[in-house]
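Annotated sample (chain length 488).
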Amino acid sequence: MDELGAQAAALVARHPRDARLRRVGTSRAGTPLWLLSVGHGSRQALVVAGPHANEPVGGATVLRLAERVLADPRLSEGADATWNVLLCLDPDGSRRNEGWLSGPYSLGRYFRNFFRPGFLEQPEWLPDGAAGARLPETRALLEVQDELRPFLQCSLHGVDVGGGFVELTRDLPGLARRVAHTATRLAVPRELGPYDTLYWPSLGPAVYRIPPPRIGDLAAAITEAAVESTWYHPHRHGTVTAVVEAPMWGVAAVEDATPPIDAESILRTVSHTLRHDTRILEQLLARIRPYVTGAPEPGPHPGPGDARPRPAADTAAASGGSPFGAGGPGAALAAPGAAGAVSDVARLLAPVDDYLLVCPGLADAWDPDVDTGGARPLPPLNTAHLAALRIAGRRLALRTAGLLYQVVVASGHDPAGVLPELDRLIDEWCADYRDGCGARWISVARQVEYQSRVVLSAFELARRYAPVRSRSGEPGWGTETAVPMHRE
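Output written by the structure step:
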């Protein structure tokens, strides 16, 4: 995180007339939220990096985009556009992933250092609507959206295992063809059936239409994301939002659109495996929980009317030299009933509870032998869909195991005796990704280039229909000497 901010400040120092860095908010742990703006055009584009803590590629992508805009006047003056890039929406969560960002890049290292906050602490979601937004990161983004009224918003995400795809709030005709060209040139697989778009309209191969927000329970929100969000908030301003997903470990099978030989047999295996893994993880959590200082007791999960952010946690600052453009989490284990700091434990266990909440329902929804009553039946599935479901089930298990692993390791001792089993499970499940799914690391340079090209394609298509709007509301835009961040 520190490196990302320093690189942005250095870019502004090199281009003081055309680039500006301003603080638009502060995270829960006191980290500045920086907006880098390039150009002086009347049409505003907004690019948001780091909305999910475990998806770092966006930080490197926004710096690459800024450099390209500065080098190519056609992207700013020629398009009457100003590019505004939010360097990282969740800097506190991103710091918790710095344990793997400097490499070497292996699945085991990634999942043992994985962190992503619980659903209610993810800043893009608005479980109580924009008026009820409680996270300062969310409020900062909403204010930027309402100030800029961008014609295009790009939210930069990363797929840990799978392929690249794009989700849109409004169609951009021609984008699917451009995504296909970019993916082919860079040897990045396109995901033709992501599990979270299972019921969404397709706008072309690997391009999907985000459904309008609707009220639903927490489990549906986590798995389908069709809830009120910062993706749809600027819709009132005529904004089209593109969620651009770039894969870290690519799997060729996610772009296989052929009919499967025996879909029901594969679905049974996937659903049975998810149930089996969930039971193991629930048992491990039950062994760990009594020794975790201040861990929340298991209980009913909130519905939409009860959704409230969990308590914030302090985050230790750490920096390192990472090609992504950026410590691990702390936890405390003690005898049952012992007192101590609890915030980090709560932050680690919140997503564990979320994952274990949705796993049984997903297993039932995917199992052809289970009657789910009024639930929506699965749509027709191709081989890519089945590969994505297998990856998704394994992802839920690995993330949960990685978070439990961190709780124990950070404590320095293992009173419940679970660490050897967690180590074995993580190794076994990562081997399944590597050997069973054929997951292969995609270099950071290719990830960034893929995501940058898709954003530029979306920009070109969106600006054709964008109305002329007023300039940024920032006073004195482009007339002041840039102030380095360390002198702010």
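Annotation: The CA atoms of residues 112 and 216 lie 32 Å apart.
Annotation: Confidence is low (pLDDT under 50) at residues 299-320, 326-342, 470-488.
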